[in-house]
Amino acid sequence: MKKQSIKGLAFIAVAGSLVTSCDLLKDLDYTVTPDPLEMHGDSVRVKVDVTFPEKGIKKKVSAEINPSIASTQLKPLMVQGEKATGNGTVIQYKAGGKVTYTDVVPYKSDMEASALSVTGKVFKGTKEKEQLDVIRIADATIITPYLVNKDFRVIYEADQFKRVTEEKQFAQINYEKGKSNVRPAELKDKDIVELQNWLTKVQPNAKVNIKSIEIVGYASPEGEEDKNNTLSTDRSNTGKETVLGVAKKAKNDKAQTEIFSLKGSGEDYVGFKRELQASKFNEDEKNLILRVLEMYKDPVKREEEMRAMGKTFTQLDKDIFPLLRRSEIYVVYDLTGYSDEELKAISVSNPDSLKLEELLFTATLTNDLNEKLRLYQVAAKNFPQDHRAFNNIGAVYYEQNKLGEAKAQFEKANGMKDNAIAKNNLGAIAGVQGDRAKAKQLFGQANGAGAQVNYNKGILDIQDGKYASAVSNFGSEATFNKALAQLLNGDNAGATKTIDGSDDAESAQGYYLKAIAAKRDKKDAEATSNISKAAAKDASFGERATRDREFVTPVAVEKAAAAAADKK
């Protein structure tokens, strides 16, 4: 656009009269609020104060005044003189009067660069006497709310990846009845052999840091309680001696230091119940034994009653009690996982070897949507029970503008686990597709899922004409939509400040919004400058400005200017 034509906006004035005159109905004055008309919430509200001067309407005259905006006819205004018959508003002949007319109509696209006009008919009795000329009484229509970016935001499910995790290596030593010495055969058991092999393997591994070795000794619940308490403690001590010997063979220095934690837990009734439930005893026998355990809290009486079970006790002594005479060994260590670079390399060379959390985390290390998609698809294939990968596949599709594919993935994720994040994401799909009612419902169900939900609600607020609510929902983040909400809520300075602090400070739409703010503050030169900057980046904004009613001179101002010229 040429600079000359931008200055020539001046700012868009359309000639017209505000006075309707004929012999029977004359010198009516129309005051429209606001002028130009404005669209809010997809509707245009019209308010016109119609002033009748003294002797402006004959006593026996009635009139039908017909307002219209472009091709849309508004409801008629019926008025009549004091001696006319009908249902119109009565206007006194000598005094004149005022009628306030209101209507609300859905916005249509042809209303953008048009006018609010009136015409009508004048009657005397039932006979039409005169036809009123068509006159423009206000410009139409400001549609600035339609500048809203429908950039509804989706939410990625977070990974639970931890670079350093606490792990445990387990082994167990079993003992003979009433004894705490470790039999040589126990040292050849699979779990002790595996413990030695593990200690050998991790000795040179800097990613494994052994923190403590916890050994808990237990006794079976028969015999004297005091002796069993001592026995369990002795078993924890011999467990320590065994681990020290195993660690020495493994040449693991850390496992031979004073990092042991020993505990004698006495008679193991918790373990007894667990093993009993897993045993081959029938349900009646199990229930009888459990009732004895629950009924008698005194350990002496409890053992007495158990021994009184005869064969049942004998079977317990054979099958259950030997499992409880043990020491449990837990080597507690911190395991440092792969570095970012290692994860990225493995995700290409051998992605199937990665755990779910590693895959989800690795996807966050790249901005390449296709690479993100590949990683989430691997996660979904290898861990199909977890809904997060499917949600995140949908989020990538959404950012690639593949709405159908995105919706299918969000629905699948929500079907696997009803959750607020998927509800927000499905709401974003509905919002982009123009189903505001569905979007509003889904965002309501997504409360608490993240700041994205409130941002999305803010977009709907602008579309619904709830600008204060929109400002609140957009929060503290400086975005174009927040600036637009501030402007529509009457805060022109705040809107400009927000734009200048946002990514749109120098974008075409950013400059255009600043032009509107400047014009509303009557800073015409600044408005023209910002339109020029907007048009230089995107010519469509220069063309838009030529028809945008934000930049017209209101009819009321034209009327005042014309009146002042007449006086001269």
From TrEMBL:
Region: Disordered, residue numbers: 521-543
Placement of TPR repeats on the sequence: 387-420
Domain of life of the source: Bacteria
Organism: Taishania pollutisoli
Keywords of the record: TPR repeat
Protein name as it appears in the record: Tetratricopeptide repeat protein
